[in-house]
């Protein structure tokens, strides 16, 4: 309906503004301060980044109620990956926030999202600009695996701090013998992360074929 389409357009517009601000801020800071800006990335844009990622949880709801026709599982995996890395790994360890990998991760996320939300906004209005469509469904194929590698590296960097501070580790007192050592949880999540990457990459190639197949390209050109 027109109302739902308008709502989705406003949602995409809000995300586009948020990620564009982050992306532009990162570039300007790097051009102004050089490498010194990298260590301060999280403190400069972390709040807006967290708001954008929390807002992205709505995309799961959009799929569940049927106003977004995207596949649920790939989108769910991509969103939860970011939530876990941003809020559990980076936000909880101040020592990790100053690492260069955080800047790399934020750059990849925002580059992908600026393109994706631009494409979504135009698509809501029935505008399908072929170069933008190609970029949206092609750029994610090389950049998503790079972002997964950055996520994995961020987890590896954070492990010594989780081991030292015992963050999120739980040990119940006697007579219980149950305990959770969080670094082990993160190491197991690394396996899930890379296994999910293979599934999501297959889905990205599938989406690319659907939107950039020979027949679709000819139709859009005509």
TrEMBL record:
Its main location: endoplasmic reticulum. Keywords: Endoplasmic reticulum, Fatty acid biosynthesis, Fatty acid metabolism, Lipid biosynthesis, Lipid metabolism, Lyase, Membrane, Transmembrane, Transmembrane helix. InterPro entries: Tyr_Pase-like_PTPLA. GO terms for biological process: fatty acid elongation; sphingolipid biosynthetic process; very long-chain fatty acid biosynthetic process. The keyword Transmembrane applies. Signal peptide: none annotated. It is found in: Endoplasmic reticulum membrane; Membrane. It holds the Pfam family PTPLA. GO terms for molecular function: very-long-chain (3R)-3-hydroxyacyl-CoA dehydratase activity. It is an enzyme of class 4 (lyase). It is a multi-pass membrane protein. Catalyzes the third of the four reactions of the long-chain fatty acids elongation cycle. This endoplasmic reticulum-bound enzymatic process, allows the addition of two carbons to the chain of long- and very long-chain fatty acids/VLCFAs per cycle. This enzyme catalyzes the dehydration of the 3-hydroxyacyl-CoA intermediate into trans-2,3-enoyl-CoA, within each cycle of fatty acid elongation. Thereby, it participates to the production of VLCFAs of different chain lengths that are involved in multiple biological processes as precursors of membrane lipids and lipid mediators. This is Very-long-chain (3R)-3-hydroxyacyl-CoA dehydratase. The gene is Hacd4.
